[in-house]
């Protein structure tokens, strides 16, 4: 899985736990957006500051489970579509 911080947006306080729990390769935002499935992570002010891209469904599922284990909530869980280009968008619950 690949990840990128978005320029000019403050990371969430929980970000060190996110990158500690997931095996992520740092890449440019453009590279991450090329992955098959995208996860956005919001900071405390509601801005998406990190993108996580997964090439395979099982990697995506693992990332979702890890973020849920951290107490984060997927605001698109009950949605069939994408929002802001993401298949899932997590924020602190």
Account of the protein in words:
The protein has three helices and six strands, in the order βαβαββαββ. The chain is of the alpha/beta class and 93 residues long. Strands 2-1-4-3-6-5 form a six-stranded mixed beta sheet. The longest helix has 13 residues. The termini are far apart. The model has no long low-confidence stretch (mean pLDDT 96).
Query: Count the helices. How many?
Result: 3
Distance separating the two termini: 24 Å
Measured by DSSP, the beta-strand proportion falls in 25-35%
Shape: globular
Q: What is the rounded Rg?
A: 12 Å
Low-pLDDT runs of 5+ residues are none
Q: Outline the biggest β-sheet.
A: 6 strands, mixed
Instruction: Give the spatial strand order of the biggest sheet.
Output: 2-1-4-3-6-5
- Structural class per helix/strand content? alpha/beta
Specify the helix fraction band.
25-40%
Layout of strands and helices, then pairs:
Elements: E1 2-5, H1 15-21, E2 25-26, H2 29-33, E3 37-42, E4 48-54, H3 57-69, E5 72-74, E6 88-92
Parallel strand pairs: 1-2, 3-6
Antiparallel strand pairs: 1-4, 3-4, 5-6
Descriptive tags:
93 residues, 6-stranded mixed sheet, 29% strand, 3 helices
